[in-house]
Structures
1.
Amino acid sequence: MAEISNRRNQRKGYLGAAALITVLVGLYWGLLHAPPDAYQGEVQRIMYLHIPSILTAYLSFFLVFVGSCLYLWKKEKRDDILAYSAAEIGVLFTALTIAEGSIWGRPTWGVWWTWDARLTLTAILLLIFAGYLMLRSLTEEENRAASSAAVLGIIGFLDIPLIHMSVYWWRTLHQPPSILRPDKAPWENVHPAMLTALAINFVGFVLLYFYLLSLRFRLGEMREEIKARWLNRGN
Amino acid sequence: MGAWRFVFLAYGIVWCAILIYWITLKRRLRRAETELAQLRAFEESQSNAQT
């Protein structure tokens, strides 16, 4: 048992180290190596955080969606722990995305915030999952909280396709995607040095995300074990 | 320098927030580990007392 735990910790350590190294390389590449944008200038470097953090948030809410569906289907605690853990980290990355976007928007658009379709839908996504976390912490009956949160997690995930398509469906201030667009490959649209900076930062964010998720998931498992032991003690 | 202050503000907020989250997560983990170890030790002492 102790050996399995040690091996798990060792794996987490490697993942954390890989995330740290990639993030540091990404910082160097994004801040120093990549050229400034011809129109936006240096402020475009915020995109090396903004795009990876929103994609990581999408990945996180996808895991909430998967964990929630599995929990409602099989009622296994592990799936609920996965959904809860992913929701917590997803909220962090979504909040950071909005903050970065706001800081980028001030010199580029002239405003910190505007009620543009994509921005508003992203703020709704943040509110839905903040509500998810509140629901988890305020509902006392645990299985009911897990089931209600799973339904909310599935509904919340459905906001993501709306966010992605909002720039096509409505005339908005937010520009259409530069990377995930159907008509052009990323390398046809973005300078290779900028694309490399984006790719390194994205990999760094994903590694960091899985490292944080592994810690948060372990915390969830331990809390379940503590609860089970207290219940046994009571009986 | 004008544009760079926005860049540094964004990078500063992001990495500070992630660092703070990581520190609190580690603290929560340590607290849970301690509580679990105490519970295990208590249960072990109880079962030893019974045998």
2.
Amino acid sequence: MIRYVLGRLTSLVISLFVASIVIFGVIEVIPGDPAAFMLGVNARPDTIAALRAEMGLDQPLITRYFDWVTGMLQGDFGQSWTYKTPVSELIADRIWVSLPLALYALILSTLIAFPAGIYAASRRGRAGDVTIMGATQLGVAIPNFWFAMILVLIFAINLRWFSAGGFPGWDDPAQALKSLTLPAIALALPQAAILARVMRSSLLDMLGEDFIRTARAKGLSRRKALWKHAVRNALIPVLTIIGLQFSFLLAGGIIIEQVFFLPGLGRLIFQSISARDLIVVESVVMLLVFTVIVVNFAVDMAYAAVDPRLRAKA
Amino acid sequence: MSLLAIENLSLQIGDTDILHDVGLSVTPGQIVAITGESGSGKSMTALSVMGLLPRGAKATGQIKLDGTDILQTAERDLCQMRGNAMGMVFQEPMTALNPVQTIGAQVAETILVHEKTTKADAYERAARMLERVGLKVAPTRYPHELSGGQRQRVVIAMAIALRPKLLIADEPTTALDVTTQARILDLLKDLVQDFDMGLLLITHDLAVVADIADKIVVMQKGRVVETGPTQDLLANMQHLYTKALFEASGHQVDLPDNTAVRTGSVQLLYAKHIVRDYALPRKSLLGSRPAFRALDDVSFHIDHGERVGLVGESGCGKSTLTRAILGLEDVQGGEIRLDGEPVFSAGSNLAVRRKMQVVFQDPYGSFNPRHRVDRLITEPFHLLENPPTGMARDTAISKALQDVGLSPDDAGKYIHEFSGGQRQRIAIARALIIAPELIIFDEAVSALDVSVRAQVLDLIADLCRKRPLAYLFISHDLSVVRTVTDRVMVMQAGQIVEQGATEEVFVNPQHPYTQTLIAAAPKLPELPYAVETI
Amino acid sequence: MSRNLIIGSALSALFVALAVISFLWTPYDIETLDIPNKLQSPSALNLLGTDQFGRDILSMIMMGARTSIAVALLAVGIGMALGIPLGLLAAARHGSLLDELIMRGNDLVFAFPSLVIAILITAVFGASAVNAIIAIGIFNIPVFARLTRGAALPLWERDFILAARVCGKSATRISVEHILPNITNLMIVQGTIQFSLGILAEAALSYIGLGAQPPTASWGRMLADAQTLVSIAPHTALVPGFAILFMVLGLNLLGDGLRDWLDPRIRVART
């Protein structure tokens, strides 16, 4: 077990290291002169020089890289060129929109997908299964930003149950959640469709296993065998998918935030890219990648906690 | 009064008739064996008794367990009976258990499903049941920590936890070693006596049947062909199929005398002090990596034209040795030479390779499903410097197919169009097509039905008559090795513990392990009269 | 031939047909604006109505189909051309450093949020269809690499591979002669799935303005343009959305149908 944890931990550190190098490389090295790139074609040489000095671009690459990494480890993400505020402040504001949104969407997605997938697997080939599979086919085919537009059309513009966009802040939690509801649904439904399919196929795999037959031979009814043996085992591979989904929801919120005018990380990234504010882009991308890698690590740990075979293996 | 009485059982799945008018009975304390080849309907009969038939199955007739007709009982009531009045043990112990639950919990589940008792009580009884079946590990272990034989004991414990009146065992020992098989069968016999249970045992192994059953039921293609008390049936077989079955099981191959053995300075296969280690995962970060010694100072030789057998149970190192001989893996110590040349080399060593070929165990996995037969059996041509092309190639293919009893027209077909026995013939054709000096038969007949097995062994004997073959015949099945080799080697835990002339070793084993092995193997009784072969 | 296969093929074929026909003919020329005719609902003149510049929506859908299919198809091409050999290599050299590197490389690419990186690439290197192809294609590589390796590894254990090794064939030869033909079915099915994901990705990129640029038509950008018009002229938002939906649905059904037809035991990756 210790070996497994240590192994995964090493993997984590190496991944973070390589990721940081890649991001640093792409952002700071590839555009040629980051400062010139940021200021655009019409910038004056002295403005460019000033920015270069401020960004420390005259220093050797290695020093810049180390400064950046050590800075991040201490919580200093640099200063945004466009907003003239510390990037950490920008992130802190935005993350309180993106993170709850991703969690909300994840919970919705799981709540819909699990029962749907289990039900479909237990009614394999019959009407219930076919209906659910049909629904998931639609779900995975819908572009989520279009779905968002439709939701706005129906629920905000026509029915007026929700506002069409914007985020009022967390002072009134109920209102805040309400404003996140339509976006969360737009994000959640396509993911739920994928998750339901995975749940169904994982469960069907389990139901074909010998130990289910053994359970039935012991006198368990079909339903009991399903819940006590199949579902528990089927959940294990599904865990990985949920971990991946969370990362996707966090980053994929970008487009949804555009549709609903939510001041989240996605919007920040997008605006920064448009404004060519490389400092912000660099840090936010690193943050997102960091989250993904850490979430994957957590999923691996959960995996080992649930599956005794992994605990014993190297 | 019969415990189990099956009458006129017929079964249809979809459009296919699976069982036709099957009848048998079991009384308490009696062991009834259903035997037959694959497709005979043995397992389906067992599943019918348990009421565990697949969807779309239509059964007619009567299956009376202690007076209750299973076929007329509702599913809910059947759930009450399963695990309680009747229990079942299946064939594959490796996959029969839930991998994420402890074995104690799984045995306790049988109790908890049927009786209103506390968890603590159930666990306690489970622990005692595990002891009863001879398992010496803690109930808190997980299935992956146990061997095949141990897992099968757990499955048995689960099935008998509530002392059912009827125990059904579907090929319970087929996936196990000879010695483990003997112990599990003894356990079953013991439990039948102790609990006064009826045991319905399904097995294709006639020697097991002759050994342990009180009554034999012979099935073929979904029908009961013959049935009767063991001794009576063996002494006086009526049906043609029964006779053929028993003959095939104890089939003695007419091996031509080995006049072609050439001993000389250069032996065909020469292995000296072979050591093969597998690195194991590290236990701690410091210190050297532990290793598992799969082959421990193995030395032997095979002369040109000699037919040698290799027996051993799973884990003894047979497969490792095979790979080493074939030059597929390097060894850590010693050397292996084929006709004087080392078998393993970093680069390509086609010259050495063309002198040996192999026939594998699995007739379904030995061929690329996407290629046609002509391409499949000419794969060894890659080893030749000037492989035949055009007409010469076609002739070679036709001849190879005819030599193994198939038709040249078969060259254009895909492998899935052939049966298991036919595929093994094609495998032999592939092995012989470039006339290698040595053939390795790696459990080549182990996956075949008894009658097909007899035919393939006859084919090998035939080929020996046409052209002197030298081979290494590897098998866990002692009776097969005995009939098809001149000399035999016995392996245990990575070492060759005994070798000698086949008959000598079998009649007069020297090493204690060999003696155990031969004693454990169930024996087919000598039939009191000559049986015609079909 | 299952129902999935039939419906899927029909839908996919429909859009491919539209794309192909667009090279020869469209009802109207989309480069000429016709402002007086703007925001017309679907009628006999314009089967799917007109947009805010008076352009015929049906014509734009046809041209947009070209863009979507081209981008998604080439992206799949990149993924397969680079991913499959990597996967075969990793499986052939299972347990070696190379295998480890390829696997870690895969994991690393998967760790990057694909949409963010696609946006990054197209923003840094310029928004265009070509860059969209590259951005989406890059993320197809690890999908195919992982799938190929996963499918190839159990095949290497099979006896017929051992037989080929006994016949002296090299790992490369075996990968091409024996492994590859046996994973083709899986690759075809996965290719269809990745194709459909590519359509969605291209639409998303175009929606935020980073895909093919005007005057090249693109369904995603049609949706972006329609966003503010959704209440006054809903057809401008609904038509492109349904186009994407049906194209992707068709491809997914085709993929499922192919899988069941070719080999029901195939497991595909769908994340």
3.
Amino acid sequence: MSQVRVLVGTRKGAFVLTSDGKRQRWDVSGPHFAGWEVFHVKGSPADPDRLYASQCTSWFGQLIQRSDDGGKNWEPVGNEFAYDGVPGTHQWYDGTPHPWEFARVWHLEPSLDDPDTVWAGVEDAALFRSSDGGKTWQELPGLRGHGSGASWQPGAGGMCLHTIVLDPIDRARITVAISSAGAFRSDDSGKTWRPINRGLRSEQIPDPTAEVGHCVHRIAAHPSRPNVLFMQKHWDVMRSDDAGDSWREVSGNLPSDFGFPIEVHAHEPETIYVVPIKSDSEHFPPEGKLRVYRSRTGGDEWQALTDGLPQRDCYVNVLRDAMAVDALDPCGVYFGTTGGQVYASADAGDRWVPIVRDLPAVLSVEVQTLR
Amino acid sequence: MIRIALPAHLRTLARVDGEVSLDVRGAATQRSVLDALEARYPMLRGTIRDHATQRRRAFVRFFAGGEDLSHEPADAPLPGAVVTGAEPFVILGAMAGG
């Protein structure tokens, strides 16, 4: 019998939600690391019992926790994220130079085939890797040093590297996204990098089509077609069919093309999900209606999914790492809100139910399908 | 024997209840006490002072005997009452956030 494990990071700890394959009754464990911000929890595809969690506070800094038993027990591992060489400066909000300073780990991406290898996307933006189960971390300096780093600026949430997409076919290819610098790709396992932002248009920067400077919120890909990338940008939902070499807008009939997460159906590579948010200054759903939008055509044509979601007086947000899918059939879709709800659909988005309603603000949701 | 009072989050992280007592080699200073603390509890590295600069984290304060020692030099001798164990060296999170 299959089992589903949902890993939830919140403003005040982590929670592990488990169910059998019917996905009707859920067991909730936690809070783990109570009182700490948990930006992300993710399991290793190679060993589902190996989990990594990013835990931090403004008081005591960054910790990385590791579990080897599916989240029952945790051990702190290495938490030293030292930039390679002299870090230099990036741009501050006002355009003045600002020293590169480590703040926190936003995203942990375990290797597809080695439980001891894990990538970390951090603020101020950089990519780190551990190959010893999180004990030590080394920066891949080619990203910050590829040439445009001094011009990067922070987004409202900080200058964070929040998206890491590992290509399951071309194992040397890694795609990352930074707010608000844009998307970058390496084709040599992270040694060298180049911006991949052609086709993006951002009216909030002096040159709307600049090579870097775009506030990319999230990128997702289906593992069977890693050259097809879907992007939720600050404004605009975008698509690339050439691994990011060029992008085109697929916002179509969305009520707002601002938002944070974007996700791909586990079995239908052209079925994608977004959660429209009213604007960058009003971080809540348009008209107070929480709606997931699904496109079965890889964008452009979108259908509102509302069954089971609040359709009045709803003013929560759904953050960039707070949506995920399981691998069951039908595909399960999950997302968490800043109001502390985690909603699940066991039928690809047609009907939704809250698994839990009153957690701290949800920062991230990941799903493991256990067989 | 130096007594150290940790804030609740760091007690949880270090898996200790109540105060920690440590033998410190040589003069008892903030640096030597924190070195000994981190040697005993490696999971605390980086949570009280920065890994690279060894500077106190901005939202962490050091008190002893009713005095704020946060801005004392790292190598300044700690008060006699801390050295004799009459008073704990208190590490706490700054009151912030309401």
